[in-house]
Each structure stands twice: as C-alpha cells, then as structure tokens.
Design brief:
4-stranded antiparallel beta sheet; 124 residues; 4 strands; alpha+beta
Length: 124
Amino acid sequence: MRSEANKTFVTVRDFILPARIGIYESEHLAPQRICVSISMELDNFKVSHDRIEDTVSYEGIVMEIRRLADVHHELVETLAEHLAQYCLNDVRVSCVEVAIEKLDIFIEGIVGARVIRTASDLTV
C-alpha cells in the first residue's frame, strides 16, 4: 500500500470459509478452507456523517467473498483478481490488497497468493 497520509482503510481480515478452489481432481470434489483478507484504500476520504451510505461497506465485500467461494476457481490468484475488481468497482476505492490462503493443503504451513491493484488497473 502507498503512503497512509489522508487515507482511510476499510478491511476484512482473516475471513475463513469453505471454497471451491484448486486444480486437482480432489479439489474439484469437495470445498476446502480458505482465509481471505482484503484492505481497501480510500484516498482523501472522510466520513462526514454517521451513516453507512457515507463509506464503503464491508458487508457487500463479505457477501461477494461468500458468492465467489461457491464458484469453482482453479487458482487462488483468479479468485483474488475477481475480488480486487469487485472492490475497485466502487469509485471511492483507489487501491485494494487481496490475500487468499489455502489453510489445509500442507501440514507444515499455509500457502496462497496476494494481489495489489489500483483503480487505474481497471482501465487497462
């Protein structure tokens, strides 16, 4: 993420849920646990009133995570890209970081991918 002066961050962290993801046949047969973390950067943004309409609601992000987790993706990178694009569809979001981790693939640790995208990436 860029410099934090005059910025607001809206986050969803450590959101654990079953997802249909992976390239192997066994991964096509059953969902597996993933952990999703998203940080959305809003430049020069300040809530002027105590109303949900005045900010980026994380409820919509959570609903999109749940929806996409139920659609099979071969790669965590693809799922991360879809979530990043969803977040950037809100014009107030200037930059988003999405991390997705597969929690149960290896007993020794956690694997995954992280993407950082900016609003200017949408115009490419």
